[in-house]
Structure formats: structure tokens, C-alpha cells
Amino acid sequence: MKEYQTITEVSGPLVHVAVDEPVGYDEMVEIEVDGETRRGQVLESTSDHVAIQVFESTQGIDRNCSVRFLGETMKMPVTEDLLGRVLDGTGQPIDDGPEIVPDERRDIVGKAINPYSREFPREFIQTGVSAIDGMNTLVRGQKLPLFSGSGLPHNDLALQIARQAEVPEESEGDDEEESEFAVVFAAMGITAEEANAFMDDFERTGALERSVVFTNLADDPAVERTITPRLALTTAEYLAFEKGYHVLTIMTDMTNYCEALREIGAAREEVPGRRGYPGYMYTDLANLYERAGRIEGVEGSITQIPILTMPSDDDTHPIPDLTGYITEGQIYVDRDLNSQGVRPPIYVLPSLSRLMDEGIGEGHTREDHGDVSDQMYAAYAEGEDLRDLVNIVGREALSERDNKFLDFADRFEQEFVDQGTDTDRSIEETLDLGWELLSMLPKAELNRIGEEFIEEYYIEDESAAADETEAEA
């Protein structure tokens, strides 16, 4: 290790150092400041100059400080004993637990999964949330983001998924080890109040036992925010591909992560891209999201649920826009439903899970799942359109058929979507509830469901059936 006292400039989170030989990109650095050691990472390197991003504050760093280049990139100490632990944004334990003794130390950049070796995601994950399980099903190895807005209860939904998510027994096959399920939770740029709420919930529900939690607070340096998701994903890769766990990785809030990228880009005086974000933000996000998946011949899997708050609720903003290109769908958290008291306020019409068809049906959920989902989408969409018409002509002007679709839309939101944050519904309960709602409609209107399913699951209205029999007589 070479030691330098050649700091030339300090600019925001960046420290510029003159060197006499090339230094590796992403190499780890230690800076001695009044007897205190601060860590950093090489962000830019030439033959005679390097720019270092410091993970802690740069306050107090001057020309007299010593800089040591460690000759290696940042590594995450990984072990199965990380389950049940709480770490800060740089991977240091903050739960007063015992010291972590790692099995190995892994580079946080990770390795891309060879496309040839990728296994197509097909196995159903039950989150216990009907609007997701029934309408936008999550499958193992998928990356399915939550598109939310500032002030909406996306954190409550994230915690609900973290504690309820499981692989149903019928989807596990014969191998008992398939049931091993773990959660890696990475929180970036959250307030201390939010962090306390997260930890209280994890400890109260016992979800912490099967979880690894990384917390980067809002007052932590922005630079730390850029490594937190990489530490979390490195841990997830170890648990999934070395220990055979099915890992659900929840990352919140990706907007804070992208803001950190923009802040560092401005400090480096980079030419900005759209709305001031770096031009390489697409590549950077893809490096994170594409670390989800399954590998052929390997038992474990990584499923991602990134959460982002759309600035001004605008889904054309660069962060949700680029995320939508990379991931396999999106779940919308809606402000209007939230104001009506619907929990969780998931708006199913613009939501989408592109891999849903592969993870539902016979052998995964239930044979009628696809048809029920399609019919509920169509009926709810028609009810939404009729609400606009009611605002113009009034409900009295609508036909009996139209009124049934309006009632369906109301009950769909109040009974199917609105289930509270503590209700854990099995997929059978979700589909049975779907049939209960669809049975409000005449059989002739169920044009997206197979006849055999209608015969088996449709719930006849006894009074209506009696009236119909009398009329025929």
C-alpha cells in the first residue's frame, strides 16, 4: 500500500489526489483525518490524478491528510449468519449483535448472469396481497417495481410483502429445501422515523429472523446511498446461488438512489442528461435490476421489488421511465384510492406483471386464475368508464346492466383491493373472492372465462334464480 499526502482539492463528497502511478478504478481508499480513518472509493483515475468519493463526511480533510490505496475493490463479507441482522448503508452491523464472521468476502459489483444460463421465471410467489397475487402475479426471479408517490403508504406495502411473502407448498415440488425463503431489505435515504418504523415492524412480526436489513438514512452521505443496493444484492446472490435460498430483495427508495447519482455527477461536473440526471443512469439501474433471476442448475433465486416515488406523480419522469424499460412490469400505488382509505391503494388498471402468465394456472396457482384475472380487469375497466358517464348523465339514466358494473367496480375496490396491511390472503381466498364479485354479473357477461370454470365456480343468486324460474313458468 502506498501512502500519499498530495490532496489537491476537496469538492463536495469528492477528494482529488495527485499520484505518481495509475490507480485502479473502484479501488478502496483510506484517508487519515486527525487520527480518524475514513473510507472512500476511486471514482476516476488517470496516470497522475484520481478522484475519490468519500463515504463519510469530507469535513476536516485538507492537504495534510494521508491517503492510502488498498489495492482492492469494495467487498461485502457474506455468511448465512447475516439472516436476522441489521446493517448500515456500508454493511456495518448496527444491531448490537455479535461480530459477523464471514465465510467469504465478495466484490459488490457482482457478476452478470450469463443469458444462456438464465432459467425462465415460472414459480409463483404468494405475497398475501390480492391485488398483486390475483391481478399482477409475482414469480420467482422476476423484477417487479412499485411505482408510488411522495406521502403514499408504499413503505407499509413493502413491509406487508416482506413479512407475508412465501412459496406455497404446491409450488415447491418434492424438494423440501425449496421452502427456504429469505428477504433482503435495502432502505436508502429514509428518515430516522421511517427506519424505526421498519425495525419495529420487523421485530414485532418476527420477519427479522429470515431477513437481512440494510438502512441508509437521509442524513448519511449521498455516496453511501450508491453502494447500499450493491451490498444488499451481493448478500442476496450469496444466499440464493450458494445457499439455495429463494431471496426476495426489496429496495426502497430508488428515487433517493438516483438523486445521489445526480449529486455525485454534479460534483464531478459531468454533462447532465435528462432533467439533470447522468446520461449513464439507464446503465447504472440495469446493473442493479439485472442481478435478479434464476440460474439453470442452481436451486436458489433472486426476486426484486424496487420501490420508487415518482416526482410529481409523473410516470414519464426519467426514474420510473427507465425502470419500466428494464423491469418486467410495474405496480401502481394510487393517490385517489389512498385518499378514499383503500389499503393498500394499488390501482390495478395501469399495473402489469409481464411474467404473470408463466406463473399461474394449473400446477402453480389454480386452473381458473388467468380467466378470473382477465374478467375482473375487463369488468373493473368498464365500471371505471361508467363512473365518468355517471358524472354527466346521473346514475338513473344507466341501464340495469351498467349499474351492475358500477356496483362491481365499487365492491372490487372495497373488498378485493382494500384488505388492510395485516390481512394475509392465500391465493385460493383471493380467487374465491374474485368469483364472489364476478357472480354479481350475469353469466352472459363473463365472456373471458371458460364455460367449465363458470359451471364450477359461479355462485348463483338464489333469489334471482327463483324469480327466473317463476318467469319461465
TrEMBL record:
<keyword id="KW-1003">Cell membrane</keyword>
<dbReference type="Pfam" id="PF02874">
    <property type="entry name" value="ATP-synt_ab_N"/>
</dbReference>
<dbReference type="GO" id="GO:0046933">
    <property type="term" value="F:proton-transporting ATP synthase activity, rotational mechanism"/>
</dbReference>
<protein>
    <recommendedName>
        <fullName>A-type ATP synthase subunit B</fullName>
    </recommendedName>
</protein>
<comment type="function">
    <text>Component of the A-type ATP synthase that produces ATP from ADP in the presence of a proton gradient across the membrane. The B chain is a regulatory subunit.</text>
</comment>
<keyword id="KW-0375">Hydrogen ion transport</keyword>
<keyword id="KW-0813">Transport</keyword>
<comment type="subunit">
    <text>Has multiple subunits with at least A(3), B(3), C, D, E, F, H, I and proteolipid K(x).</text>
</comment>
<dbReference type="GO" id="GO:0016787">
    <property type="term" value="F:hydrolase activity"/>
</dbReference>
<dbReference type="InterPro" id="IPR055190">
    <property type="entry name" value="ATP-synt_VA_C"/>
</dbReference>
<dbReference type="Pfam" id="PF22919">
    <property type="entry name" value="ATP-synt_VA_C"/>
</dbReference>
<dbReference type="GO" id="GO:0005524">
    <property type="term" value="F:ATP binding"/>
</dbReference>
<dbReference type="InterPro" id="IPR004100">
    <property type="entry name" value="ATPase_F1/V1/A1_a/bsu_N"/>
</dbReference>
<keyword id="KW-0378">Hydrolase</keyword>
<keyword id="KW-0406">Ion transport</keyword>
<feature type="domain" description="ATP synthase A/B type C-terminal">
    <location>
        <begin position="359"/>
        <end position="458"/>
    </location>
</feature>
<dbReference type="GO" id="GO:0005886">
    <property type="term" value="C:plasma membrane"/>
</dbReference>
<dbReference type="InterPro" id="IPR027417">
    <property type="entry name" value="P-loop_NTPase"/>
</dbReference>
<dbReference type="Pfam" id="PF00006">
    <property type="entry name" value="ATP-synt_ab"/>
</dbReference>
<keyword id="KW-0066">ATP synthesis</keyword>
<comment type="similarity">
    <text>Belongs to the ATPase alpha/beta chains family.</text>
</comment>
<feature type="domain" description="ATPase F1/V1/A1 complex alpha/beta subunit nucleotide-binding">
    <location>
        <begin position="128"/>
        <end position="353"/>
    </location>
</feature>
<feature type="domain" description="ATPase F1/V1/A1 complex alpha/beta subunit N-terminal">
    <location>
        <begin position="7"/>
        <end position="71"/>
    </location>
</feature>
<dbReference type="GO" id="GO:0042777">
    <property type="term" value="P:proton motive force-driven plasma membrane ATP synthesis"/>
</dbReference>
<dbReference type="InterPro" id="IPR000194">
    <property type="entry name" value="ATPase_F1/V1/A1_a/bsu_nucl-bd"/>
</dbReference>
<keyword id="KW-0472">Membrane</keyword>
<dbReference type="InterPro" id="IPR022879">
    <property type="entry name" value="V-ATPase_su_B/beta"/>
</dbReference>
